[in-house]
Amino acid sequence: MKWTSDQLKAIENRETNMLVSAAAGSGKTALLIQRIIRIVLEEKVGVDELLILTFTRGAAGEMKNRLSQALARELENPENDRSFLMKQMNILGGASISTLHSFCLSVLRQYFHKGDIDPGFAIGNDTEIALMLKETLEEVFEDEYQQAITMKNMAQENNAQNTPEQPDQNLEKNQENNEPAIDFLDLIEKYSGNKNDQALKDTVETLYRFLATQPNPESWSHQALALFDCDQKSLEASVWGSSLKKIINTELQGAMDSALKAREISATAGFEKTHEQMKSEVMMLEALEKTIRADLVAGLETLKNLGYERFRGSAKADKELNEQIKKYRDEAKTSITKLQKRFAINMDEMVQELNDLKKPMADLVALTQKFWTAFQAKKAQKNLVDYNDLEQLTLKILMDPEVADEVRTRYRYIFLDEYQDTNEMQETILQRIVRDNNYFMVGDVKQSIYRFRLADPTIFISKYESFGRDGNPNNSLVTLNQNFRSAQGVINSVNAIFEQVMSAGLGEINYDEQARLNKGLPHEGPYQKTEIHIIEEQKKETEAGDVGAFDEDDREDLTAVEVEARFVANQIQSLVGTTFFDTRHNQERAINYGDFGILMRSVAGRGDVYLRIFSEMGIPTYFDGGTNYYESLEITMILNLLNLMDNQHQDLPLLSIMTSPIGNFTTTECTRLRIAHPQGFFYQAVEAYAQEECDELSQKLGAFYQKLTDWRYQSKLMAVEDFLWKIYLESGYYAFVGALPGGEQRQCNLRILLKRAGDYKKSTLKGLYQFIRFVENMKKHKQDISPPAMVSNHEAVVRLMTIHKSKGLEFPIVILAGAGKGFNKRSNYSQVLFHKDLGICPDYVNLEKRYKHNSLAKEVCKA
């Protein structure tokens, strides 16, 4: 393989720590394998002296597989040391090529005595840990409610026994001897929903997960709370003040751009008065910008009092130019009006609000710490750790200089793939064991998609901006922006879009010459067209025969998703049968349905619509994320049966099972039961009929309840996995669903539930009730909802999937659908946000005046 000069730098340079910014299709994995092989061959470094980390088990497994293949190829070269390479092949299976969490686990297993850890600990199942977390939150909140009630009762008793001149000395002593109590009810009133306390529970959980990614959560909490203890001067100098200046200046720059355009156009003859007004407004914005930079307090006051006069256009001059001037002038005015609404209060009020927020936020931190302590204790009771614990405990152990030095000495070179997805905790762990010149980081910040998992791409960006420019000879940067995967048309399209939308302000990195893609392929086939189709929301006339056209009558009752799905279907049908040049097989051939891949950011609410419309239009389609696994007929039925055995006094599960092949009751029979006993719950009507009547239906009910009773008894004696298989067979339900349309997939779904029962058996949870909760939690968090595909990769069907599931180079023709869907900003609507630099950023809630709004902290965090 012929390497580019930049790729060779990344492969050959071993004198420094190196950050490789590798764009999509730049040959990152091949480069990484080549660097490792060169190190092994040229320096005689054993694979057991390398630490190679990534973020998924699949990626780690593929890395190990590729390295094995590369070593095998080198074995065929007679010039290489065969015995040395054979040894590397033999020990490769035990080499440290793993996820970061697996590395942490190996450190804990070896140095458990340094961290006061029970060596018999186990990693908790995700669902088991989630259930424990939920239980702990419930217990902590219940305890806080009880304490709040006790304190309220004590206060009422003391008020009755003491006059205002004689306060209760015992209460004062309690407050002196203990830390300030959490004002739990105040938190509930301010930061919970109207119906329940779930919103506050969610906030506590979010803060806990955030703190778990901080190397020093106590220090972060202390610094975050200290920000609320401010005055005007310290606020302006704080991270909130500097961020506020940036927000205002960014908005002002947009307003200024529009005002300058208005001034430029108004310089045309006939607009003399308008031009004077536009000049005056530009000067007004320039003065505001200057004031903001010099003095934030004065700047906010100036912004608050800023006003626009009525637009002085020219009725006699060019009408079109007059409209253009007004348009740009209105844009500037709108930007200023928005700023005035966002920051309507003065600096004194801002400071007072932030001061008022210190106590509730300190209470929130204290409540979260109480939950954290209780959660750790609950896990310790079962000798379990979760992934957050792995990182926290590993860092604690590596803070021992002796341990850190021992681990550091063990590895000659350290590699970290997908570096853009690290967080502060993970980076701190690795900094404890790297040397000055053995750390190789590779990734692409433009592909960072795990911020919802608390990945922090700013770590990558910080090194990208400093490596090679900070004068440190131990650090170097290599940028790989040649794409060897895509044709020029695709590359041009990607660049054209991202040059417009990606900037440091919006995406934390500028899409400049270093970031844009460049063609790396030496040749390309003739088929490289990229098309962008925009579907107008309003109705518009279309010419019959146009690709993607459809009658107005067809469109009236269609949702936006249906309109898009029908358009895509028409596009596919128009292309099937036409010819294109297949670069993979180097020949021209006809397009078939199997050549199409439809990618979406999210298939939720869209995939099923596409599937239905494609089916109506005769397009064979495969979609493995359709109807929710847990909502499928067969899984719903079995879960209803389990719920019924756990508690037979449930109407919906009872009616569901009775009318299924398991119960085999007809709707007529169920109606007879209700007519005979119209009052009360349905299960009461069923039980009453079975006890009071002596007909064929009552006998059928008796047999049905006896079957449930037998199963309920057996469930207590058998492992859930074995019990499930027993009822599958005894009820005949497994055979029944196999005979339905899609029977093979339905039986596969039931076997997946068996596998979940097997996972449950490995946890510390026991019994049918806990298994039901185990599954309900997976259902709630949408875990394991994609059963294995029942379609061959070679079948001529259109495939519909998320971008995340696609591997690249799978389809000759790719359709990116749902691109008009807005971004998910749900997190911005949370009442409290958390940021590693900006700290705790809550809503300001005034209970007395019954209003709330974004605090300054939240405004700058959302920006």
From TrEMBL:
Q: Which GO terms describe its molecular function?
A: 3'-5' DNA helicase activity; ATP binding; DNA binding; hydrolase activity
Q: Which GO terms describe its biological process?
A: recombinational repair
The UniProt record gives the binding positions of ATP as A22, A23, A24, G25, S26, G27, K28, T29
Checking InterPro entries in the record gives: DNA_helicase_UvrD-like_C, DNA_helicase_UvrD/REP, P-loop_NTPase, UvrD-like_ATP-bd
Q: What catalytic reaction does the record list?
A: ATP + H2O = ADP + phosphate + H(+); Couples ATP hydrolysis with the unwinding of duplex DNA by translocating in the 3'-5' direction
Q: What's the EC number here?
A: 5.6.2.4
Task: Name a single GO cellular component.
Answer: cytosol
Q: Which SUPFAM superfamilies match?
A: P-loop containing nucleoside triphosphate hydrolases
| UvrD-like helicase C-terminal domain mapped to chain residues | 525-808
Which Pfam families does the record match to this protein?
Answer: UvrD-helicase, UvrD_C
* Keyword tags: ATP-binding, Helicase, Hydrolase, Isomerase, Nucleotide-binding
Q: Pinpoint the UvrD-like helicase ATP-binding domain residues.
A: 1-487
Q: Which domain of life is it from?
A: Bacteria
Q: Give the protein's recorded name.
A: DNA 3'-5' helicase
- Give the organism the record lists: Candidatus Wallbacteria bacterium HGW-Wallbacteria-1
For this protein's source organism, the top of the classification is:
Bacteria, Candidatus Walliibacteriota
